[in-house]
Every structure is written in C-alpha cells, then in structure tokens.
Amino acid sequence: MYETILFPTDGSDHAATVADHAIDVARTRNASLHVFSVVDDRAFLVLDDDRVESVREDLRANALEATDEAATRATDEGLDVETAVDTGHPAECIVDYADANGIDLIVMGTSGDEYEQNVVGSVSQRVVRDAPIPVLTVGPDV
Fold this sequence. Notes:
By secondary structure, this protein is an alpha/beta fold. It contains four helices and five strands, in the order βαβαβαβαβ.
C-alpha cells in the first residue's frame, strides 16, 4: 500500500522525532523514503534587497543539512532514500513534490505554536487539506 513515503523536514528538534516515525513506517512497509525540505521564500518579503541572497544561502544550507541528517539516519536503517530541497511556499512545494514523485504517504510534524487554536500547524494543515494522498501527522508532544 505504501511504497514511497515523503518526510518533509525543517531540521527542528521535533523533526527528528517525526523522522523516527517516517523511518519506522518505511522500514515496516519496505518502502523507499524521500526526505524533502523547503526554503520558505516568504521570509524574503521583509528583507532589504541586499540581504536576500545571503539569507537564501543560509536557509538553503540549513535545508540541505536537515535533509542530509535525516537521510543518513534512514540509510543507516537500510532504507532506499532520495533527498531534495526546493524554494517556495512549504505546503505547496510538499504537495507538488508528492504528486510529481508518486508518493503514497506523507509523514510530517505539526507545529507546537498556538496548539489550542491551531490543532495542526499551518503548513501541515494545508498539506492535509490539499494532498490527494494520506498524511500522517506527528504532534509536538509525541
């Protein structure tokens, strides 16, 4: 049922917990794992033009580090892994990536920000709403 799993990561501490879940599901299902990160270009809207490139490079380096770290963990567990980094709106990029790569399941974290008001983080909430495939969300207290 699940042969190709997508794990979107932002490199946060919580993402490491979510990676455990994604790796476990992939290992249990003998599935491949795609580790994906998005440089959120909305951050550039409030920056002075002379800072945009520097910030973009920093964010891309962080995204690459996050994907590499999760991919190494998954590879150590014997999984087939692919990594990718994109730039744009995270939810849109995640759904687009899943569609373009034949993903069967998305495993992603939810935000702890304003948890009572927003049970699922805004990116996660939008992915759950827009993705044409199942999305497994892992809350901040797991």
